[in-house]
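Consortium newsletter contribution from the modelling node. Members have asked for a concrete example of what our holo predictions look like. Here is one, prepared for the zinc ion complex that several groups have been discussing at recent meetings.
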Amino acid sequence: MNNHFVGRLLAVFVVTAGLSVIAPSHVAAKIVTDVDAAEAVNTSVAFGTAKADAGVATGSASLTPAAKRWQSTKITYKIDSGSSYYRSVWHSAVKKWNHSGVVHLVATTGKADISLSTSNSPMGNCGSTVGITYSSYYNNKTLNHLPVLVSAKSYVFKNVASHYHYSKTERANVAQHELGHALGLEHNVGRHSVMYYATRDQSVSKPDVNGLEHSYR
Ligand SMILES: [Zn+2]
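And here is the predicted structure:
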């Protein structure tokens, strides 16, 4: 990273927000309610203090809270997966958020704001986290009192999703949840939000669109 870039950023915090696994009702036990991997990763000492914001759920269920946002409502993305199955999972998540009419996610072949990917969980098949999003943002630039995002990368953990028998629709819901984090949204206290910390069968709903409208107003 060159000095000019470092100077512009001043400090970047890298944060993570994961989605906990929830087992379907017909599978006995293992409804894991463990909260998100709130592990902070400091990219460089020069970038200042690392800060974790994962797992935060505050306020009203009717308005999904936001902790960050992008500069513009036009946001670029790239699907970084060789699997046509997962490309389709991510495409459906992109479509869902675009349907809100608030943000306009546009595919790019160049450097994207948001990267959408899949991998196996480093915690193994039985990990409690089925998706995760890393993001970085400016610490000296805000819009509507929200730090402006620099980059985000979301993952669906395919080994965990398979282990807990997630259907394709349920994996798409996980993808929607992670993309919600990549757009700056936090967890909603209510189960009817896709941003509920352990959602499985919920997709983008009114509180989520309200939250997006509020942060991108
Ligand atoms: Zn989450």
